[in-house]
Amino acid sequence: MEEALGFTNDMERDGVGPDVVTYNIIAKGYHLLGLMSGAWETIRKMLSKGINPDSITYTMLVCGYCQTGNIKEAFKLQEEMLSKGFQLNTVSYGVLISSLCKIGQVSEALRLLYEMESIGLKPDIVTYSILIHGFCRTGEVQRAIQLYKEMSLKKIIPNSYAQSAILLGLCNKGMISEARTYFDSLTEREFPVDIILFNIMINKYAKLGCIGEAIQLYTRIFEKGISPSIVTFNSLIYGFCRIRKLEEAKRWLYHIEAHGMLPSVVTYTTLMNAYSVEENIDSMIELLLEMKIKGVEPSHITYTVLIKGLSKRLRLQECIQLLDHMYVSGISPDQITYNTLIQCFCKAQNLSKAFQLHDEMSLHNLQPTPVTYNVLINGLCVYGDLKDADRLLNILQERKVILRKVAYTTLIKAHCVKGSTDKAKSLFCQMRETGFEISVRDYSAVINRLCKRGLIIEAKEFFRMMIFDGISPDKEICAVMVEASNQGGDITFLCLMLCLMIKLGLLPDQSYC
To answer: Can you spell out the DSSP letters for 424-437?
Structure first.
């Protein structure tokens, strides 16, 4: 780049002014290096010399804006180009379509595709594939399939990227039957098929626990003359772990090596997570040692899984040692790692250590998540002082920390159990005012706890709040209120409840009549 700039300076010194082609070449060099500021400076210099940009200049600028995520400016340039008589080429349209798909504006990207065709430009397989993938990512699988059909009618041969996008989209939508039909239509033809399609289908069957179907597809891989990948084996191992056939899952490690591959960190972590669920610490440690022998470096997820397994056995000191070992090994724990540890110490009723770990997160530039605070609030409610839990909530609210609804419901339930109905009601109103969607389950949780404590008047108050909010009670909550009214001898409210149940089509138990 320095030499190119040197030649340009020599040209100007010798009285040979660079033309638009020269400036475009220099700007393109900056663009390829990712130095868009240099590209802009070159264009500004060109304009100051009275040299007008051409279509190549505009195309480069459009691409630059798109790559930096400034789609708005890219479209302004498009309008400027058109006003000056220039027309976008296939490259410009392709970059704009790709950028729109990345931010989820796939319908607008499709409009550009049809605009391309209207001016005589022919979109290629890459452009169509980007759009198909975009529709699948936004869950609009049917529109992706329609576009796939349009592309095929235009004699554009679909590639595996488009095919795998549709297959993955169908799987993600839970349309397994349709996904399998589409998969079979692709793999039963004589066209070459790659392992990606098989991996998508095998992975979905494994996640559903349909290991028989996954194995059946695995055998078909060899019939098609395709080699399995490590992703194939990882999916199968996950499938066996899901149905708790851990010894069978572990045997697939030998299949991996038989095909000349090494198990990956995902392979080992998947197995270790399954052993963690079973609280089989020895097998987890055994796999960790095997990883190190084979030169497979554990990830932060691997360590988090180990910590989770150890925490179930309350081996807290070993959990902390693992955390320290992560830092020594240059592996950065994430929020999930710390949340796992904090929950572990809360359950062990060591709340001071839990809060120490929370403070440690900030020291390592890790922002505590809503889950972090949910765990701490729950720990204080169950194992600590409820007043401390209230204080923590107040502090977080003052700091404008974003919380989830569960933080409020945890505190509300705790106050109901304690009999602090005024505080429970206050928190419930805060929860509503914060904008959380309140459901019949939220009211049911409160009313059940109040009735169990014999606080029938307070339970009725929450029941009236629910009706006032326009939330229809279900049969379970009505039965609780009927039982409470019956035991309290409140015949008037009992009759009202029975009438309400009949009105809602919730037939009351005959024992109440």
So the answer is: HHHHHHHHHHHTPP
Alpha helices (H) along 209-264? 211-223, 230-242, 246-258
Amino acid at 460: K
Cβ atoms within 10 Å of 9's Cβ, excluding its own: 11
CA atoms within 13 A on the CB side of 358: 23
Task: Render pLDDT for 171-223 as a digit per residue (tens, 0 to 9).
Answer: 888 888 988 998 888 888 766 778 999 999 999 999 999 999 999 999 999 98
* 53: Cα within 13 Å, side-chain hemisphere: 25
Would you state the structure tokens that stand for residue 220, as one six-digit string?
Answer: 């078909």
User: Could you tell me if 453 and 441 are in contact, meaning their C-beta atoms sit under 8 angstroms apart?
Assistant: no
The DSSP symbol for 510 reads: G
Residue percentage of the chain with pLDDT more than 70: 92
pTM, to two decimals: 0.73
Neighbouring CB atoms inside 10 A of 25's CB total: 14
Q: How many angstroms separate the CA atoms of 306 and 248, rounded?
A: 21
Mean pLDDT for 282-290 is 93
* pLDDT, tens digit, 9 for 90 and up, residues 106-121: 898 899 888 888 888 8
**Rg of the Cα atoms in the chain:** 32
Q: How many residues does the chain have?
A: 513
- 5: Cβ contacts below 8 Å, ≥ 6 apart: 26
* DSSP secondary structure of 141-203: HHHHHHHHHHHHHTT----HHHHHHHHHHHHHTT-HHHHHHHHHHHHTSSS---HHHHHHHHH
Cα 84 to Cα 30, 58, 87: the distances in Å are 25, 11, 9
**Left, alpha or beta for 10 (phi > 0: left; psi -120 to 50: alpha)?**
alpha
C-alpha to C-alpha distances, 194 to 49, 222, 257, 372, 482, nearest whole angstrom: 54, 12, 21, 43, 63
What's residue 147's pLDDT?
86
Cβ–Cβ under 8 Å, residues 311 and 339: no
CA distance 250 to 292: 17
In a 13 Å sphere around the CA of 363, the CA atoms on its Cβ side amount to 7
pLDDT grade for 374, boundaries at 50, 70 and 90: very high
